């Protein structure tokens, strides 16, 4: 658990200390759910004493914003999409090649056992 001193040290280097939100316009979010004034932490997080919920403080009505999506530029997003699309195409091509290779060997022939028992395995059809 973080005590008051370690909390101040952790926030000393961040820009969050410089911003202030009035109590009437602030809202807490955790796991995609807003905390309301009449709720307790155990209402949303449960009664597990060892868990430490990390909440986000923001202006009321701001809704849930995913920070990881906001920090990605448009060019980087397009590059990632192209990379994963190419990777998906390669995986599909590999799966198709594996399916073809699986059906071509001699042991995949449904009549191979019968032909080997009869001794007609070396006879080729016209």
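^ structure tokens above, recovered residues below v
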């Amino acid at each position: 658990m973080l005590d008051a001193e370690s909390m101040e040290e952790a926030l000393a280097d961040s820009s969050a200390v410089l911003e202030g939100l009035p109590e009437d316009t602030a809202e807490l979010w955790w796991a995609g759910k807003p905390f309301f004034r009449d709720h307790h932490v155990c209402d949303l997080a449960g009664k597990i004493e060892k868990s430490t919920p990390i909440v986000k403080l923001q202006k009321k009505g701001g809704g849930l914003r995913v920070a990881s999506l906001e920090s990605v530029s448009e060019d980087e997003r397009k590059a990632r999409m192209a990379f994963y699309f190419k990777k998906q195409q390669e995986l599909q091509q590999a799966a198709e090649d594996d399916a073809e290779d699986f059906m071509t060997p001699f042991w995949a022939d449904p009549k191979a056992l019968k032909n080997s028992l009869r001794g007609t395995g070396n006879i080729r059809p016209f």
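The chain is about 45% helix and 10% strand.
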